[in-house]
Records
---
Amino acid sequence: MEFRYLGNSGLRVSQICLGKMDFGATMSDATARKVVDTARVNQVNFIDTADAYSNGASEKIVGKLIKKDWAAWVLATKVGQQHGRPERKRGLSRKWMMEAIDGGLARLGTDYVDIYYMHHRDRDTPIGESVAAMGDIIASGKAFYWGGSNHSGWEVAEIIRQCDQLGVPRPFVSQSMYNLAMRMPENDHLSACEYFSIGVAPFSPLARGVLTGKYDPKKAPPKGSRAARGDGSVLNRDTRKETFAAVEKTCKHAAKRGMTPADFAVLRVLNNRIHRRPAHPGAVEGLSLCAETHLHGGRRGVRGWDRGGRPPRIAGPDLEPSPTDRAGRAHRIARRLDVERCSPASP
C-alpha cells in the first residue's frame, strides 16, 4: 500500500480509502466486519462515511468496527446531504452543521473526527455561512481537517476566498465523482485543486460497477447487482449508451494488456499525474475492499506494479472525449495523464 500526504497537510493516508455508503443498507453487519478486516490486512488506514448514509446507520457501524484500533485510522464523515421539511431544512446552514457534528460524533462513538466534509453545495445557504460554521467546528476540536465534496472548480475557488476573508483554515481535500466514463472533473475541478494544493479523493472509480464489464445493455442486470435492485444512481447516471461504449473499448484494451477492465479503470485513476504529485496526492474512495483485494492481490499487487517493482504503463483506449473535455488546460492534462508515470512514493 502506498501512503500519501493529503493535500498541503501533514496528514498521511493510504492510497485507497474505504468508502462505506452501503454499511447499514445493502451490506450485513457480518460482511461489513469482513470488509474492514480486509482493509486492515491491506494496510488501508483511511475510512469514509456520512450522516446521510442509511440515515446514520453507516456511522454507527463504522464506529463499532474500528473501535478496537481507533488511533490507527483516519476517519472522515460528512454533513449536508440529510434532508428535512422546508421549515427544518438541514443542508449546510450554521444551525444544522453545529447540530450535525454532535450527532455524527455520538453515532461514531468518539469526540472528534479527522476529516469533516461538506457533502454537497447547499444552494439555499450562503457559502460564507457554511465556511464560518466549519471554522468553528475545527476551532472546537471536533474535527481536525475539513474538505468539500461534489463542488465545481469555481466553487472550490470561492470557498478558498471565503476562508481567507473569514480567517478559517482552508480545506485540505475535495471529493468528486471521477472515472473513465465520468471525466467532468478534468474540466476545472482537478486544476482548481492543483492550484490551491488541495488533495483529491475521487469516488466511484468503477462507475458503480459498470466499468467492470458485468453489465450487458442487451440483457437484464445480473442478479443481486445495484442495477437489479433498482438503484437510481446506477440506472440514471451510469448505464448510458456513452458509458457502455467506453466499457466496450476498455474491455478490449484491457484484454490486450492481460488486465481486467476493473484493473484498468482503477489504475487509470490512481495514475492521474495530479494525484501522484507529492504535494497534491489523492486517494480512491468507494471501492469494496473485498473486490479491491481480488483485483490487485495477484500478479500486479495492491499497488498495481509488476513483480519487478516497475509501474505498469497504462495507455488508455482511444475514447472520444465529450465536448466539454476539449477545451483548455484541463483537457491537455487529461490527454497526458495516461502516459506519464512517476516513481513510487517514499515509505
---
Amino acid sequence: MNGASALRTLPRGTDPTPGNANFALDLGALAPSSPTFLALGLVVQYQPLGAGCTLFVAQPLATLFAVAPSSAQVRFPIPIPNDPGLRGVQFVAQGAVFDPPRSLLGSATLTAGLRITIGD
C-alpha cells in the first residue's frame, strides 16, 4: 500500500460480473471530510512518484469523487452493465485521498492499485 488508505472490493455477492448493479469499491481508513478520488482505467503503469508512492492507473477512463463521511469509509458504486461481452475485461483502480497530515507526498495519499477482471 502506498499510504494510510486502503482500497478493496466489497464482500461476496458484489462480484464484478455482467449485470451486477451492486458492484462497488470501498476506500477506507480516511480522515473525515477528506476529498477522495477513485481513478479507473484499462492500462496499468508503474510510475514512481517518490516517497514510496506509485501511480498505477494510466490514461484514466473515469475519475469518481466523494467527501469522506465521519465513518471514514467511502463506497464508490460501479454498476456493471448486463453485457456478456464484458466477461474477461480487466480494469485497474486506484484511490487518492487529500490528507496532508498523513501523506508521504505532502498532500495526497495513494492506495495500491487493484486489478479487477469482470467474470462469471
